[in-house]
């Protein structure tokens, strides 16, 4: 276990916010709540497509990397293999991806976007971007970049925690 740096006193601004609710002083609560909010915005912006954020992540990984095995997809999106298998099954049922056995290893299933899956990714791009923009829109532009950089730093520093890492270049 890594030693933590000594805690510092919160800024006056943070102390005032935490006065509203003790939960506002807990990063885990804030991350979970913001995830819920973003999920709602994503579904609102992309309702016509009937795709979940996790399904869109899988489609995006396939659009970016081409045909991959399910373990590679799991690493690309930071999901457990069983979750990826369920997502792929749903996407295949909608005709958005195709699966086949690997010619090198019959135990391995390869997945690639179907033409309709590629069209889905392209067709959703603007709606997805609106959801992302709406999530951070309350912040001034310079704070948006700072938030993104801080989130990336936290992800990179903690990526090995949990059951599935996210593949970092």
UniProtKB/TrEMBL annotation:
Species: Orrella dioscoreae
- PANTHER family, alphabetically? TRANSCRIPTIONAL REGULATOR, MARR (PTHR42756), TRANSCRIPTIONAL REPRESSOR OF EMRAB OPERON (PTHR42756:SF1)
Please give the Pfam families that the UniProt record associates with this protein.
Answer: MarR (PF01047)
Query: Which domain of life does the UniProt lineage start with?
Result: Bacteria
Which PROSITE patterns does the entry mention?
A: HTH_MARR_2
InterPro entries, sorted: HTH_MarR-typ, WH-like_DNA-bd_sf, WH_DNA-bd_sf
Q: Which GO terms describe its molecular function?
A: DNA binding; DNA-binding transcription factor activity
Q: Is Transcription regulation given among the entry's keywords? A: yes
**Record protein name field:** Transcriptional regulator, MarR family
Q: In this protein, which residues make up the domain named HTH marR-type?
A: 11-156
Q: Which UniProt keywords apply?
A: DNA-binding, Transcription, Transcription regulation
The question of whether Transport is a record keyword is answered with no
